[in-house]
Amino acid sequence: MVSLSGVCFAQTDSTDKVDANFIFNYYEQDGNHSAVTGGRGTQELQDIAGKLVVKVDMDSVNTLFTSLSINKYSSASTDRIDSRLSSASARDYHMELGIGFEKKKNDKLSTGGSFYGAVESDYVSLGLGYSLKRKDVKRGTYTLKIKGFYDSWILIYPEEIRREYFRMAPTDKRYSINFAQGYSWNVSKKMKAKLSLDLTWQHGMLATPFHRVYFLDTVAVGIEQLPENRLKIPVGLETNTYLSDLVILKSKVRLYADNFGVNAFTGNISPVLLVSKSMSLAPFYRYHVQSGSKYFNTFAKNVFNDSYYTSDYDLSGFSSNSFGVTLKYNPVYGVLGKNRMGWKNIGIRYSNYSRSDGLAANIIGLNCGFVW
Amino acid sequence: MVNIKCKKMKKRRTILALVVLVFFIGCANVKPYQRAYLNHSEMETGDDLLEGYETNAQNYREGASGGSGGKTGGGCGCN
After folding, report:
1. Structure-model confidence comparison of residues A252 and B7, the more confident one
2. Residue in A116, A189, A258 closest to B75 by CB
3. Chain B within 8 Å of A205 (Cβ-Cβ)?
């Protein structure tokens, strides 16, 4: 269900050629508004994810990076696409591969490209990306990332309507293009800021074919119907501030709007406690509130003759709270001392997520960083 | 009709407030020998590797995505 895409970089010494990170995550959730059963029913799900991210400095100007991730998830709700329950919750795998490069043109300018592929039981995704980074010592750093995706679905409908429904999905393809711009600068000797402005446009299959919809004015069962075009515009501001020699305060604010009628505000705050030169402890809190999509209705409240409708609570109006803590250990001579095995750092993160409609989740993450 | 106009005005005012806030934060030319604090690994902006999975999970479970990393469109079987 959930996996990472994209690649991140860890800081390395100038003599290090290979930088590798092994990341493991466990996710579990439960709620009572499954979209597969029309907005009512279990949302129990577990996901185990493993990811390897590798960055290789080929020389002083060329960098190669790659990432591979595999998720195994089980979902009680997707097991109800058919009316006959198989046995335990439905299981599925998700695999992703990303390959890319970055080239320094000069001291100020770097460009890069990437290729991406993902596969799951009901879709295949291919993507291409282009990146640009322009650094100005005085003014700041501007980054631009353009990604295009082509997704192809295997349309799986709820069992009871596979042969008799008149409004099947209009297409099994989805095209997406994303422009992500960022500008980061030094506000003072102890403060950094970054402004992010994204633009995402999607066309094609934006509904999920096995999400059931029940109606106010008929006993017929339908499937989710959403427009074939979606434009998303998020704007974010991030600041990191050295409050004292022991505390760095991180904060983020994001505003979001799209043409589905979802408008959102998100705020994060995290005081990072510098316990020692090699260890940090960071509790965090996140608040999110959004208005529901104009196409959303609760169970059995949709109107049959409407053009678009959904009972997916991810598109409803709600607020959510997340809190947790991150612990990082990054000693100068490695986790095992004397740079043994190249094991440079380790980090652990726990997060609890709860939504006002009753969905709750727990996430545990572990990252081990190596340099050779 | 009046309500829609009010909502649009509120959206514009919020975006304008964000832009003004950015300008008020300011900008400084910090010399390399003055960047001891700025160069700390915890001062880097953007999601680190531990946060990436969680950011994607939030994007899947919420109608909003982007502006802070994670999947913003395509590459997944999600809205």
Report:
1. A252
2. A116
3. no
Q: Do B14 and A266 touch (CB under 8 A)?
A: no
Residues A312-342 pLDDT 10s: 999 999 999 999 999 999 999 999 988 888 9
A187 touches chain B (CB under 8 A): yes
pLDDT tens digits for range A143-184: 999 999 999 988 888 877 776 666 777 888 999 999 999 999
- Please give the angle made by the CA atoms of A94, A100 and A104, to the nearest 5 degrees: 155
In three-state form (DSSP H/G/I as H, E/B as E, the rest C), the secondary structure along A237-266 is EEEEEECCCCEEEEEEEEEEEECCCCEEEE
Determine the Cα–Cα distance for residues A109 and A102; give it in Å rounded to an integer: 10
Closest residue by Cα to residue A152 from B63, B59, B76? B76
Question: Model's pTM, two decimal places?
Answer: 0.86
For chain A, state the CA radius of gyration. Answer: 23
Q: Which of B29, B28, B77 is nearest to B56 (CA)?
A: B77
CA atoms of A216 and A223, how far apart (whole Å):
14
Token pair recorded at residue A131:
């990146």
| The residue to which tokens 């959730």 are assigned | A29
**Residue A8: pLDDT over 50:** no
Distance, CA of A262 to CA of A264 (rounded, Å): 7
